[in-house]
Amino acid sequence: MKISLFYTLRQITARWLATALLCLLAGAAAQAQPVTTTGSGQTLYLPVYSHVWHGDVDSKGVAQQTLVSALVSIRNTDTAKSIRVTSAVYYDSKGKRLREYLDKPVTLAPLAAHEIYVPRNDTAGGSGASFIIAWQATEPANPPVVEALHLNMPAGRSIAFITTARPIAAR
């Protein structure tokens, strides 16, 4: 009886500690971000990848490469005001401008989103590709959230990760 009671208490303690640790981690991850100031426009830098390097290097010193697609999401976070995305320019790893993804500015209503898709077979950007995205508003608005979801989902193995844009000085 003593042994089974001790074993049960040890299981309960281990489960409690694991649950407490998960709650702490979830709480830390779920903390609210500071409120951002409104503005009438910004230029944003978004890192994206056409592939990721991984694994061991071969006899030539080259690592394995896995292609990924990139779904760029530009989300208006303002609940009352529209914003205009004026450009979304794609650059390769060497900083060479590859293409503009917008034919004309796109107006995003409050809480609306615009998506840009770079397919997995488009390898022109390389592992150091980026977007420079510019937005404007006629009156101060919350800045958009701009992220890229990278995916490769073949059967049996998946890669998924997100990159986030950050403001830069316009030049």
Explained architecture:
It is a single chain. The chain folds into two domains: 1-31; 39-168, Sandwich (Hypothetical Protein Tm1070, Chain: A), CATH 2.60.290. The chain contains one helix and twelve strands, in the order αββββββββββββ. The mean pLDDT is 86. The chain has one helix spanning 2-29, and strands at residues 39-47, 51-54, 64-67, 69-75, 83-91, 97-100, 106-108, 113-118, 130-141, 145-152, 159-164, 166-168. It is elongated, with a radius of gyration of 22 Å. The longest helix has 28 residues, at 2-29. A hairpin with a 6-residue loop joins β10 and β11 (159-164). It is of the alpha+beta class and 171 residues long. The strands form three sheets. Strands 1, 5, 6, 7, 9 and 12 form a six-stranded antiparallel sheet that branches. It has a four-stranded antiparallel sheet with strand order 8-4-10-11, with no helix packed on it. A two-stranded antiparallel sheet has the order 2-3. The protein is 16% helix and 44% strand.
Index terms:
16% helix; 4-stranded antiparallel β-sheet; alpha+beta; Hypothetical Protein Tm1070, Chain: A; 171 residues
Chart the SSEs and their pairings.
Layout: H1 2-29, E1 39-47, E2 51-54, E3 64-67, E4 69-75, E5 83-91, E6 97-100, E7 106-108, E8 113-118, E9 130-141, E10 145-152, E11 159-164, E12 166-168
Antiparallel strand pairs: 1-9, 1-12, 2-3, 4-8, 4-10, 5-6, 5-7, 5-9, 10-11
